[in-house]
Amino acid sequence: MASHPAAPVSLPRLDSPLAASVVDSDGRYDGIVPDESWAAEVKRLARERNAVILAHNYQLPEIQDIADYTGDSLGLSRIAAETDADVIIFCGVHFMAETAKILSPEKTVLIPDERAGCSLADSITAEELKEWKSEHPGAVVVSYVNTTADVKAETDICCTSSNAVDVVASIPEDQEILFNPDQFLGAHVRRKTGRANVRVWAGECHVHANINGDELARRAAEDENAELFIHPECGCANSAIYLAGEGTIEPERVHMLSTGEMLTAARKVEESKPSSKVLVATEVGMLHQLRKAAPDVAFEPVNDRASCSYMKLITPAALLRCLIEGSDEVTVDPDVAARARASVERMIAIGNPGGGE
Ligand code: SF4
């Protein structure tokens, strides 16, 4: 196996007429207006570095619009692996940039602010997973892609929200499964597969967990004809199934979708029912892409406070600073990367990886 550098590559600082950044009261890089001169400078610096800019669907609209590609975490990592660019600038959270590094070990991966973490990925550490495994010898570990490289390295098969059910269904019926870290996605998988031997870690994303069932029921009652797009990580996902089951919400209105599947579904609504309304239960950044994909459909958030503060650390000033200074670099130990890559590749071999969050 080829050995890959884990040590940071020191990129030279580039000159720019725009000041890199100041820091606001919340500690975010600030002080830059995302106007045309900012956009032109970002593009110029990216060309000088031979860098590709990737933006997750939950990023600020101006970051999504300046990026070369916008999408979900796994889809972006696969684009990163295929590009000829020397440098990948991942506008998202840290585990996503790590996944890009795992799949592209020979490339330099930068994140505009390395403090962009993830409460879901932080729900389980590699040490906690090792201990859980030791309590259930022989169990198969299935981890959502929203995990650190260290956790992926301790994982048998990764999954996304698109294929979590297929991944679990591919494992022999009598084999115990340790599913982590998201309890809502785990409950969805258990319900869909009907398997009692899926043990679920009690992790959650604080943003998705706050989109709750009461709020969903109220919004669905206010807009009786609106379709509901729900990410299975949401706290309301179980409630949506329950409310549909007992007839409070018509089951045909409820669509459990990954972020990538939401865009496909949005285009279908635009064709079949333009001028209709869709209530969206996921992080509010997703609305920008949905409105671009289907401009005649009215998309509204189930909870307009569902904004990920980690994602929003990637500001226009942070992106500019990243390009000028060539930082923050994301590295993964080569041994960890190889084991983590194997768990991602096992998932891809099962098919339909979609993109997860
Ligand atoms: S929305 Fe939740 S799962 Fe997604 S990056 Fe933010 S904290 Fe993590």
Automatic annotation (TrEMBL):
Pathway where it operates: Cofactor biosynthesis; NAD(+) biosynthesis; quinolinate from iminoaspartate: step 1/1
Protein's UniProt name: Quinolinate synthase
Physiological role: Catalyzes the condensation of iminoaspartate with dihydroxyacetone phosphate to form quinolinate.
Gene: nadA
InterPro entries: NadA (IPR003473), NadA_sf (IPR036094), Quinolinate_synth_type2 (IPR023066)
EC class: transferase
Annotated compartments: Cytoplasm
EC number from the UniProt entry: 2.5.1.72
Cofactor(s) needed by this chain: [4Fe-4S] cluster
UniProt KW keywords: 4Fe-4S, Cytoplasm, Iron, Iron-sulfur, Metal-binding, Pyridine nucleotide biosynthesis, Transferase
UniProt binding sites for iminosuccinate: H56, S73, Y144, V145, N146, S161, H231, P232, E233, T259
GO cellular component, one term: cytosol
Binding site residues for [4Fe-4S] cluster: C118, C205, C308
Cofactor note as given: Binds 1 [4Fe-4S] cluster per subunit.
Family: Belongs to the quinolinate synthase family. Type 2 subfamily.
